Amino acid sequence: AYTPVINPATCEVLAECPDSPRADVDKAVQAAKEAFPEWRSTPVLSRAQYMFHFKNLLEERFEDLARIVVEENGKTRDEARGEVRRGIESVDFAISVPSIMRGYKVEDISSGIDETAERQPLGVFAAITPFNFPMMVPLWFLPTAITCGNTYVIKPSPQTPLSMELVYELLDELNLPEGVVNMVHGGKDASMAVMEHPDIAGVSFVGSTPVARIVYETCAKHGKRVQAQGGAKNYIAVMPDANMAASVANIMGSAFGCAGQRCLAGSVVVAVGEAYDALKEELVKRASGLRVGYGLEETTQMGTVISAAARERIEQMIAKGVAEGAQPLIDGRDFQVNGFENGSFVGPTILDGVTSEMQVARDEIFGPVLSIMRAGDFDEAVDLINESRYGNAASIFTSSGQHAREFKYRVKAGNIGINVGVAAATA
């Protein structure tokens, strides 16, 4: 069986992705398992040399990789270039593995006894990666995993498998020992096979929260190490003392960059006290002027969502918000782009009058929809943010050092931004 890979702007079928059965996953894992003993005994400096070569190949094909990301995912060319750059930065990080994987030694830990700790590779690792960053997320894990001496299997999203096809062509040019890196395609069956396979030591996953729960539970049940990174509902608080023009420019990128299809996208802006009127006016002005179109056109500022099904789901969420009492200041439903009438476009959407019990304030939309909520003061804003069942990221825009510090201290989120719209960690 095959899944069509569709360009979400043109509806052109770019390729067909095989829906691999468990037997294919097993072949990939066996190849990785057989390669592990020789690979782990390869000197770490030699393993790192492959990363220098890999980085050069990625740099040489930089624009090709960015173009493929645009075609299969729908984001703009600039966003795709940013993604490819972040992926390459993870290769840069792996180059430093010979230094950072050192152990330690303590003399006289007990009478006449010294203690030495050494870091050792564990075996076969796997990654199950999402559609929204088809080039970057796989490279969060692959370079470090193999430079540390492990072997690796990837199962990319069947919606966006082409970026990894090119990356693996480049990996082929490195002449790594057979079986060090492996790729298998497919959907749920292939993913379950990865999670349940007895010869995989650990799994890294990025995707939605419902699936992340399944990944976490299944891998734990089978005794694996697991990173299960799920969804988000990221709040941005704007204080009356914020620099409004600079804040809104940041918020625009956070809410509408990659058409809102980012785990760290700002999706609820909390206007604190007197910030509300100026913030609302500036947001509407900026969002109304966004140029939405095909990502390969250099002037495009926002591309498509991933598929027609995603467009339909996002439009239903907007309708639900309106039905619950939110006012659409800008409504991106039924959005048309000349020449791309069948494309999966949702226009930038801003919903005002959103309250914490509404579904648009609680659930991840994963689209270009920004909700505006109001808070009387700083404490109320912090309480609103902490009521959310997600804790991925939160940001505050303010010129007050005290509010910045208190926000960082009190808000329950893993990534905190101070005057930054996307609170992303470095490689």
Structure explained in plain terms:
The chain has 427 residues and is of the alpha/beta class. The two termini are 36 Å apart. The chain has helices at residues 22-40, 44-60, 62-73, 77-95, 97-100, 136-147, 162-173, 188-196, 209-221, 244-256, 275-288, 308-323, 359-362, 378-387, 401-410, and strands at 2-6, 13-18, 104-110, 113-117, 124-128, 151-155, 181-183, 200-206, 225-229, 234-238, 266-272, 327-330, 349-352, 369-375, 393-397, 415-418. The strands form four sheets. The protein has a seven-stranded mixed β-sheet, sandwiched between helices. The chain has a five-stranded parallel β-sheet with strand order 7-6-5-8-9, with helices on both faces. Strands 1-2 form a two-stranded antiparallel sheet. The protein is globular and about 65 Å long. The mean pLDDT is 97. Helix 10 links the parallel strand 10 (234-238) and strand 11 (266-272).
What is the rounded distance between the termini?
36 Å
- Average pLDDT: 97
Radius of gyration: 23 Å
Strand content: 15-25%
Describe the strand arrangement of the main beta sheet, using strand numbers: 12-13-14-11-10-15-16
Question: How many strands in all?
Answer: 16
Secondary-structure-derived class: alpha/beta
Q: Which ranges are low-confidence, i.e. pLDDT below 50, for 5 or more consecutive residues? A: none
Helical stretch tally = 15
Instruction: Assign an overall shape.
Output: globular
In percent, how helical is the residue content? 40-55%
Question: What kind of sheet is the major sheet?
Answer: 7 strands, mixed
